[in-house]
Records
---
Amino acid sequence: MLDHLNPADPGFARDPYPYYARLRAQGPAARVPLTNGTHAWLVTGYDQARAVLSDPRFSNVPPQGAGRPGPDSPARRARGCLARHMLNSDAPDHTRLRRLTTAAFTPRRVDALRPRIEHLADGLVTELAGELDRHGTADLVDAFAFPLPVLVIGEVLGVPEADRADLREWTYRVGSPADALEPGAVDEAWTRLHAYFTQLIGHKRESPGDDLFSTLVHDASEGGLDDGELLAMAFLLLFAGYETTMNLLASATLMLLTHEEELDAARRGGPGRWAAVVEETLRHGSPLEGTTWRRTTERVDLGGGAVIPAEDSVLVVLAAANRDPGHFPAPDDFQPARYLPEGRRAAPHLAFGHGSHFCLGSRLGRLEAAVALPRLFDALPGLALAADPAELPYRPGLLVRGPRRVPVRRR
Ligand code: HEM
């Protein structure tokens, strides 16, 4: 009999891997009782994760009436907008929405962001250095891993520099638990973000810039996207782009600060070695712990005795698939060398998902980390962890994974 799964448990949040290993040993998918009285099927094996993510019998469309009930309010309506994005849709809607976004996110356009990302990363490192001088310690998540992806999404969306501080503040609030801030602060941030994005779309339509979002707004008008779909797209780019990359940066810095030999190797090894650090952090740290929820459209037999009835909830646990010992020897060890081009390269990790919903921002996420990490560690050569790594709190829940704080000091 399986234990109940309580994603809010701090011990589980810090180290869910022994639990996932037990599930994996049971077969292709395990029916897990949740503490809220419901159940879900968790897919933890690498091969099964790929199979499910490329099988159209697993739908991304949330069931009718999903979401918490509550009185109508501007904040609720703002949140509701998010529901119409491509991650919540299946073909043919998904194909239509995705085609437009792919056209705006070409490799050339993403790569052209490099100098801006360098500039933004340098600015944050300078602020961080100042904070260390003044206070002796600083939190790398607050000062670096969180703001950088938000500022970069600001570039993607073409948010004027003068508005970036607002964007950063609202994003911070909507990503915080409601009880961590003063009453109403989270709702107010949702409402402000909604109003801001609505205005931004109107502005890009009238006077497009050379940002990716202007291209999207223009193509959307040609391709029949309505304003609601475009608004959902702006929200999706913000949320899909910042929490994931934030966790990638937070986990990578924590790994390097606790594996000094790897930090030295990256410093000596140049871009190829840094790229390997990024890939191994994606595998080992899995910034998205699980994909979004899927739902079976019919009864699915996954083999090995796992028969999922129609209309059941399924979660593909990327963090578990990325540590499947059948594909990654010593899966719990942090070994960037697995991803060096000259080595026997490890299997591709699933941190960006698989199949039709494969991450649209993978190139941008990788670029941000590849730019930011060497700049941080070059500018602050004596950086050291200012806490016991075993005590650091992790984000609760099954969706995102990463340390909530990475306190640092100068050596
Ligand atoms: C390290 C950073 C990132 C990680 C680990 C990551 C991971 C993922 C994963 C696993 C999915 C698939 C989810 C599912 O199948 O349910 C996904 C989808 C998506 N990601 Fe990312 N992501 C990252 C960065 C970004 C960035 C920077 C952007 C955009 C600026 C972005 C935009 C998207 C979008 C739009 C989708 C939906 C694609 C679709 O439904 O077809 N991501 N991401």
Note: The chain has one domain: 10-410.
---
Amino acid sequence: MRIPNFNTTEGSRLYRSTVGRQIAPRVAELLLDHIQRQLGEVAQSQCDILELGCGPGTLTIPLAQAFPFSRITATDPSEAMIELAREAAGARGLQNLTFAAVEAGKLGWAPSSFDVVVCNLAFPFFRRPYQTLRQVFKVVKPGGSVHFSVPGEHTWEEFLVIAAGVLGSAWSVAKPFLQKIQQAQQLPGALLHAGFRDLSEEHFRIPFSFPGSFEVLAFFAELFRLLDYAPHASRDILADAIDRQYPQGFQMHYEALVLAARRPALPPRHAALSARRPRAPESR
Ligand SMILES: C[S@@+](CC[C@H](N)C(=O)[O-])C[C@H]1O[C@@H](n2cnc3c(N)ncnc32)[C@H](O)[C@@H]1O
């Protein structure tokens, strides 16, 4: 099983035409809807928004369209991904977007630079997720908020239960995928550890329906080349098990979690003092 190499042109295009076409846009839609509900009028004024792990612009583009008065800085460590996102923004003539090739753990912006930070499905790929969120905390203004989507632990559960049951040790091919799901579950802890508060979490179940096992295996073959590395017989065993247990067709769910949290506002006295404090000449 392979997760595409996001750093190459080929890998980023493969991502865009597979997960970036079939799954990420559906999650991005839920995340954007959540951001619009939570921010309301705030983001319709001039707001500074940072996106982490923007990939080919799956969330970036609809976000920039939904908040035309906000300044959006979209980041990703992969130059190849940034190039795809930049192309998509250019094709739509979006002016409120800038891009930077940087990973979430190495943000170079001054403290308190952003009102809002957003991230669609990239958290499971962060190296050292706890340290990274401490970096993110610094660049959010006091009172500002963060909004993340990640896969939930029940993602593809219906399929995974069958596969683990019939494939035995051959099922280790799914390890890279399962590790990403595991890292995703660290998000609430990492947010609280970084200092964020008012954590909220929404769960969504996105259905994926298939007439039979052939289509199920084709779906995973396209997304992750799942089973390419397992013994050939495993596919037949898996296909038989799916068709036997679900003769009327198979449905599985992608579980999307949308988490939001806030950097605590400064206490009123502290806020008044910092508002009165003269700014350094170079920041004027
Ligand atoms: C599953 S893709 C999601 C892309 C995009 N947000 C979307 O919805 O299609 C994960 C993204 O995380 C990026 N990524 C990998 N390591 C990262 C890191 N340490 N910090 C930020 N982004 C990272 C990858 O380059 C990739 O674009």
Note: The beta strands are 48-51, 71-75, 97-100, 114-120, 140-151, 197-210, 250-262.
